[in-house]
Amino acid sequence: MDFTEKTKTPHPPMNQKLHYSPSSLSQILLFKSRLLRFLNKIPALFIPKCELIFRHLLFRIGFEEEKNFHVVLNSVIAGRYHVTEYLGAAAFSKALQAHDMHTGVDVCIKIIKNNKDFFDQSLDEIKLLKHVNKHDPGDKYHILRLYDYFYFREHLLIVCELLKANLYEFDKFNRESGAEVYFTMPRLQVCGVLLTF
Prior knowledge:
Elements: H1 22-40, H2 49-58, E1 76-77, E2 81-89, E3 93-100, E4 106-112, H3 116-134, E5 146-152, E6 155-161, H4 167-177, H5 185-195
């Protein structure tokens, strides 16, 4: 093979999001962090100021000081998801309700905070959901469905089916309305057995 011959590789359109496996996402971030460490060893005297700014924008590792994804209602994420409602926040993520413009279905988008530990936990969550969904293709056990995941504006986003109420709110409603307690030990044990299928 002639190594002087240039080959063109097809590039996706600018508005198309790229899909990576969880392991390749961590490899990309590791490569970018190593490259940034190498570039930071180069004395600043040899690099013009505009090139320093370009280098900073180009080689951001994704775990900078800004850990929050600013949510704007009625905005479109990744050219596909129209944000309709802010659902809430947890320790390491925010949840949005959005309308998938490709399928016409309402979905939940979980935006992971920009932190290495949270990112790693979320990759494990993606692997677990993919495994569980793979073994329940007919949705027989009614386990949360993972639709999509991608990296957008330095945040990992997980797209899954939209559920109505979380377990805490459901249990609180049951207790306040005087209904029977739903989460009893025998019921939780049955759920545990069903999840091992």
